[in-house]
Amino acid sequence: MAHIGSSIDNFYNVVMQDGADPWVYKHTDGYYYFTKTTGSDVTIWKSRQLTTMEAAPKSVINTGGYNIWAPELHYIDGAWFIYYAKDDGDNVNHRMYVMRNDSADPTRGTWEYKGQITDSTDKWAIDGTVMQVNGHLYFIWSGWEGDINVRQNLYIAYMSNPWTIDSNRVEISRPTYNWEINHSPHVNEGPQVIIRNDVINLVYSASGSWTDDYCLGLITASTTSDLLNPASWSKRNYPVFQSGNGLYAPGHHSFTKSPDGSEDWIIYHVAKYSHAGWNREVRLQPFTWHADDTPNLGVPADPNEPIALPSGEAAGIRYGAEYSQFNIAENYVEFSVEAAAAGEYILLARTADGTDVGKSSYLLLSVNPGPPNRLCIANKGWENWGLSTARIQLKAGWNKIRFSKGEGHGEIDCLDIKPAVT
Question: What superfamily in CATH does domain 316-419 come from?
Answer without folding.
Answer: Galactose-binding domain-like (2.60.120.260)
